[in-house]
Design goal:
Order of helices and strands: EHHHEHEHEHEHEHHEEHHHEHEEEH
Number of domains: 2
Number of helices: 14
Helix content: 40-55%
Shape: globular
Strand content: 15-25%
CATH architecture of the largest domain: 3-Layer(aba) Sandwich
CATH topology of the largest domain: Aspartate Aminotransferase, domain 2
CATH class of the largest domain: Alpha Beta
CATH superfamily of the largest domain: Type I PLP-dependent aspartate aminotransferase-like (Major domain)
């Protein structure tokens, strides 16, 4: 099965949870100034400079960091590193759609576990699977809900093997479990520069964990996974653009809450979100999304999500985009 969301161009694309305010200034400058050697020569084997910059950002050592071609590359490599073919990975349902796909690609059996009634993580049900690997996404995609720290700690304490914590949207929650990864020998926190940092097209992901865990992922993923241009832009963003990143995270959070209020004013009931998107249950969501696309606005439809039903996931961006989205949604429902 291929991961194949509708990516046809649309005037206002709110479908993939990227940074809709654009590229951090120093990263953009670095892309402009990159010389031919950044294209004609191989990049650094394991992105050592980027590791150091990421380590400084999360408060870890470089030996605690592994990089990859997007966080999905890191997750794929981690599944391959920590589970043998035929073993299981327990994952919340619904959650990141690529996890079951990566599991099957590596001969690992995905075991979906329904979310708790409040759309949070059901720690006891995840642990009860006895899976060799356990995956938790917080804030969760597509619900936007953040897992309580105590719940994740319960999973870590009782899970049978390594716990993968996907924090692709951590900046928008203003919280992280990196500290948990640094104090445990079987927790890997996986993160990305595709969302808050606006570098989705460059594919820069990373994970933080004990050096022994990181080394296993690095062996599983191989060299040259971060291009020279991507590494330079990412380092520039981390070392020169943090004010820009934080300002736009603040905007995303403010507009997320404003969007949720507008949706409630329409009689809808969006789920509480700690990410840069809002999931709102809407009857016949695929049909509604198609009508919105015809009006020039792309959102991500989900059909029959467990415990939720049909829903639309709407990425948050500049308020002009949100206003256009709301007009299209009103016209489609």
């Amino acid at each position: 099965m291929l991961y194949a969301p509708n990516r046809e161009p649309c005037a206002v694309d709110l479908s993939d949870n990227t940074n809709l305010w654009g590229v951090p200034p120093a990263a953009q400058r670095t892309l402009r100034e990159a010389g031919g050697a950044a294209v004609t020569r191989y990049p650094a084997l394991y992105a050592a400079e980027l590791k150091r910059a990421l380590a400084a950002y999360v408060g870890a050592g470089a030996a605690n960091v592994v990089t990859g071609c997007g966080s999905d590359d890191v997750l794929d490599s981690a599944i391959r590193a920590f589970a043998e073919p035929g073993e299981a990975i327990a994952c919340p349902d619904p959650s990141f759609a690529m996890i079951p796909i990566f599991a099957r690609m590596n001969g690992v059996v995905p075991v979906p576990v329904p979310l708790a009634p409040d759309h949070g993580v059901d720690a006891d049900a995840l642990v009860a699977t006895g899976a060799k690997l356990t995956y938790v996404c917080s804030p969760n995609n597509p619900t936007g809900t953040a897992a309580a720290r105590a719940v994740v700690e319960r999973v870590v304490e009782r899970a049978a093997g390594v716990v993968l914590i996907d924090e692709a949207y951590a900046e928008f929650a203003r919280a992280s479990l990196v500290e948990l990864a640094l104090s445990s020998d079987r927790v890997l926190v996986v993160r990305t520069m595709s969302k808050a940092f606006g570098l989705a097209g460059l594919r820069v992901g990373y994970a933080v964990g004990a050096p022994a865990l990181v080394a296993e992922v690095e062996k599983s993923r191989g060299p040259y996974k971060v291009s020279a241009i991507a590494e330079r832009a990412a380092v520039a963003a981390l070392t020169e653009d943090m004010t820009w990143v934080r300002e736009h995270v603040d905007l995303a959070i403010a507009f997320r809450e404003r969007l949720a209020n507008e949706l409630r004013g329409m009689g809808l009931a969006p789920l509480p979100s700690a990410a840069n998107f809002v999931l709102v249950p809407v009857p016949n969501a695929p049909v509604v999304a198609q009508a919105m696309r015809a009006a020039g606005v792309a959102v991500r439809p989900f059909g029959a999500l467990p415990g939720i039903g049909d829903a639309l996931r709407i990425s948050v961006g500049p308020w002009e985009m949100m206003e256009t989205c709301l007009v299209a949604l009103r016209g489609a429902t």
